[in-house]
Amino acid sequence: MKYTRGLESQRERFRAYDAVRRKVGHTVLKPGDRIPLRGVDVEVVAAAGKFIQKPLKGAGAPNPFCATNPQQAVIERDVEDNLSVGLVVSLGKFRILDLADQEAHNSHELVCPNNLLVAVDVYQVNVHGQFKGIAPELIGAVHPRVAIVGNGANKGADPQTWPILRGAAGLEDIWQVHYSANGTKDTNPPDDFIANLEPADEYKSIKLSAESNGCFTVTNRRNGFSKTYKPVSGGPK
């Protein structure tokens, strides 16, 4: 009975949201779409459980990481996560990948057997850094310099995620919104790379600033610590 009441409460909230949504302008995105934003190229690579079928410009090569990382099983209960919109955002030579809550099963579709994506400067880690969203074949394929984890103190940045991110070739730093209480000092970045150190949320954030020449800066708004990443030769490939 308690479960039924909770489900009905969720339905009521959705009906209220849907009523407003029907009255305002909105766009239903599909893979391959571009979101108009002056000066920025925003490419939709995943939406509603579907994915791009053609490689992005400069992509399409076989992905060697697929051979040792078979596709993980889909988690049937997580339907909503796998309907997320996934984006590659480019500002000149700078690129960031944000697949939102896409889980590992879905990420595999984008990079195996051929990598349909491109190398990026920044990887916004899937599903708050929960292990169910971590696909080594994706991380290896997009070759990020920096990973940003939008986790909570008790949600995401799983200890099992840390060695996979930290071991990725070319990854320079991991930044987190919260210190992961589920891990240890060895599975969290140094304090300067974490916006909130205590379980009680101080609502501090991680700021990313990018330039069209490929230079970008990440700033911890808790203490003002920042690090600038100079463009690499030729930018991301």
How many beta-strand runs? 12
Number of structural domains: 1
The low-pLDDT segments are none
**In percent, how much strand structure appears in the residues?**
15-25%
Q: Tell me the distance between the termini.
A: 55 Å
Radius of gyration: 18 Å
What is the molecular shape?
Answer: globular
Give the mean pLDDT.
94
Helical region count?
4
Largest sheet geometry: 9 strands, mixed
What structural class should be given to the helix and strand makeup? alpha/beta
The topology string of helices and strands comes to HEEEEEHEHEHEEEEE
Helix content: 10-25%
What does this protein look like?
With 237 residues, the protein is of the alpha/beta class. The chain has one domain (27-229). The protein has helices at 2-21, 104-111, 136-142, 161-166; strands at 34-37, 40-47, 50-51, 86-91, 94-98, 122-124, 146-149, 173-178, 194-196, 206-210, 216-220, 226-229. Strands 1, 2, 3, 4, 5, 6, 7, 8 and 9 form a 9-stranded mixed β-sheet that branches. A hairpin with a 5-residue loop joins strand 11 and strand 12 (226-229). The chain is globular, with a radius of gyration of 18 Å. The N and C termini lie far apart (55 Å). The mean pLDDT is 94.
Set down the secondary structure blueprint.
Layout lengths: L1 H20 L12 E4 L2 E8 L2 E2 L34 E6 L2 E5 L5 H8 L10 E3 L11 H7 L3 E4 L11 H6 L6 E6 L15 E3 L9 E5 L5 E5 L5 E4 L8
Parallel strand pairs: 5-6, 6-7, 7-8, 8-9
Antiparallel strand pairs: 1-2, 2-3, 2-4, 4-5, 10-11, 11-12
Features:
single chain; 237 residues; alpha/beta
Give a concise summary.
By secondary structure, this protein is an alpha/beta fold.
